[in-house]
Design brief:
mainly alpha; two-stranded antiparallel sheet; 434 residues
């Protein structure tokens, strides 16, 4: 057992910080209809503001993960929590148009970039492959749960007190993440991790031989100035993650506005429509949090690629039909939406765990940075593209076309995962369970 594993507070603290940082993360989606009316902006402009969050995340995570190869990762988490709070609390205070909305959402996204993936690195380095899937699954479940709480809290407060007050309250609550990050850093000093030289990462090499037996841990240090070596197996896992992020962030950004449109069309009052759309989205996203933990456990037992491919096929099918349900019974929309949320979120920990198992020795931080750059690149493009599609085709046709394009992108994932299964290096996944 490593020193990090002995510090039983690390995982709960990281999960708490992540939950609090995410409290205002989906607030803009929850009140998007009200903001569009007040600011007089189009769906495409709203999509740009939604995408700015992912854009800020990309800019931040490229720096943050590279820095974690050299300095204490807990410092990065503290800076990220502070940035997230600043960007979130300033939007309802100062933003009034597309540009200012994009700036503050971008700052908040940059803060999340300093928390989520660095926290995932801390966990991945602390646990062996036999337990990593479950622990990462729990951490990713907290990510999904944070988004669910964001929708629920913001929607309820906005319906009662206005969108600015609702946004402000959840943003102020997220400031507690800074205090937890300070405590996490203090705990790291009280219970220090065994010294690891800069740019050195300890990995397990038993899986590389495709054998079930364990071998001693070895350390590997990359050569100075060498480019990040993303080999074919790692690239395939990252490409599947990109397809996953394209679908998940498009769906997560536009589900509440979609449900709001459906409710408004059924003669539900505007305020009630915003409230119920946010609550229903919160419930569906919360169910996705439960499925991520289960998916991590399943991948530990049945293999990474097989589990992820099956889940992605189901989520893609939901994308292909969901947007065409305008005018259908609300019960049917909810039923498909629940299955959609359970599947679209579930495979997140599988990709995160798989990349840590396939990354070349000594480059984990930088490979994770590449993964985040490409994955959140898709997550940045998806909401903006969806908004443009919605403006171009109008409602209700735009909803059908938009969600269908999410599903078509997601189908790339199972294809590349099946290719990965045929590669010898896939034996490194989960001690040989592909």
């Amino acid at each position: 057992m490593t020193q990090q594993e002995k510090d039983m507070t690390m995982v709960p603290l990281l999960c708490g910080i992540l939950l609090l940082v995410l409290l205002p993360a989906s607030s803009f989606s929850a009140v998007l209809t009200l903001v569009e009316q007040e600011w007089g902006i189009s769906h495409a402009q709203s999509g740009a503001i939604l995408s700015a969050f992912q854009g800020g995340y990309i800019a931040s995570v490229l720096l943050a993960l590279s820095v974690t190869d050299r300095i204490n990762t807990r410092y990065v988490v503290l800076v990220g929590a502070t940035l997230s709070f600043a960007g979130s609390v300033l939007l309802p205070l100062l933003a009034s148009d597309t540009l200012t909305g994009m700036v503050f959402r971008g700052i908040a996204g940059a803060g999340l970039g300093g928390v989520y993936m660095p926290g995932l690195r801390l966990i991945s380095e602390a646990y062996g492959s036999e337990r990593r899937g479950r622990i990462v699954g729990f951490y990713v479940a907290c990510f999904v749960l944070g988004n669910a709480l964001s929708f629920a809290a913001t929607g309820a407060l906005a319906a009662a007190y206005g969108w600015k007050t609702g946004y402000m309250v959840v943003s102020l609550a997220s400031s507690t993440a800074i205090l937890l990050a300070v405590y996490l850093l203090w705990r790291g000093r009280v219970m220090p991790v065994p010294a690891v030289k800069p740019r050195e990462v300890v990995i397990e090499r038993g899986e590389q031989a495709g054998m079930g037996g364990r071998v001693a841990k070895q350390a590997s240090r990359p050569a100075p100035g060498r480019l990040v070596p993303v080999d074919l197996p790692t690239l395939l896992m990252i490409l599947a993650y990109v397809a996953h992020m394209w679908e998940m962030y498009g769906m997560r950004s536009w589900m509440a506005p979609f449900l709001n449109s459906v409710l408004a069309a059924s003669e539900t009052g505007s305020g009630n429509a915003v409230f119920w759309a946010a609550q229903l989205t919160s419930i569906s996203v919360f169910l996705g949090a439960l499925s991520t933990g289960l998916a991590g456990w399943l991948s530990d037992h049945f293999g990474r690629t097989a589990t992820a491919a099956g889940i992605m096929v189901l989520s893609a099918l939901c994308s292909l039909v969901f947007g065409w349900l305008v005018g259908a019974s609300f019960f049917l929309i909810l039923l498909v939406g629940i299955v959609y949320s359970l599947t679209v979120n579930a495979d997140s920990p599988i990709f995160s765990t798989g990349v840590t198992e396939l990354a070349p020795p000594g480059y984990l931080g930088r490979v994770m940075a590449v993964q985040s750059f490409l994955g959140f690149g898709a997550a940045t493009a998806s909401p903006a593209f969806f908004g443009w599609i919605l403006d171009y085709f109008g409602e209700p046709l735009g909803w059908g076309v938009g969600f269908t394009l999410l599903g078509l992108g997601a189908l790339v994932g199972p294809v590349v995962l099946m290719v990965l299964r045929t590669h010898p290096a896939s034996a490194r996944l989960c001690a040989g369970r592909k």
